[in-house]
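Reviewers of the previous submission asked for a worked example of the structure-prediction workflow described in the proposal, so we include one complete record here. The input consisted solely of the amino acid sequence. No template or homolog information was supplied to the procedure at any stage.
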Amino acid sequence: MYLEKFFGAAPSPHPCKGCGSDDTLDFDVRMAFQPIVDARDRSIFGYEALVRTEDGGGAAEVIARVTPAQLYRFDQTCRVKAIETAARLGLQQRLSINFFPNAVYEPATCIRLTLTAAQMFGFPTDKLIFETAESEQVRDHEHLTRIFRDYRNRGFLTAIDDFGAGYAGLKLLADFQPDLLKLDIALIRDIDTDPVRTAIVRGVVQIADAIGCTLLAEGVETEAEYRRLRALGVPLFQGYLFGRPQLERLDTVPDALWDQLERPLGA
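From that input alone, the workflow returned the following structure tokens.
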């Protein structure tokens, strides 16, 4: 539904040919935005766009409605909706968009609608980040690597989400080194009291430094988790501690929180 409205205003009604071959969506979506912060200078590094139902329901509720025949159209709809909404809200930082590798037929062709949307809504393409979850079972790892390389060549940043949670693991990292490596929440939770998780993350920090990836800890909820991760050398953070996803809104992080996090323990 949303893409049909978009096509009506676009210079070309079908920037990506495959869009016409898949089933259209019988529902609309909206976008929520969660801040990604840089602890090195207290800045907002970017915002991740997270799909929501029309009335604000969660991503799982949306994805449950997507049939296999709608996957390509759903992926394209989310990209365009994220860019359109971010531009309308005046987002100046980076915009991180999740994509489904299995929904990308051919990288150079399937990116056309994204580029058209960015041009139409005036959103700089060099501020786009494309991330995919390691936990998603990818049918063809070589295909995913081609997608990532194509996106990097176009000036986009790339990210592997949920690192340490799923199917791809170190093999994907060996084949392609993304700009960002997002540590899975399972490695983050209670890391301040878990020496095993601490050891694993310390090892990932060393790997990331060696291959030129920037680490991002997602799902950070407590000050203690943040302090342990920061001490290990993680620079970027995302999670409820810094802000929950907000429907069509860009929240900032109060200075008071940063003051608290940077205050020595016991002070």
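Residues 26 and 166 are 31 Å apart (CA to CA). We consider this example representative of the routine output the project will generate in years two and three.
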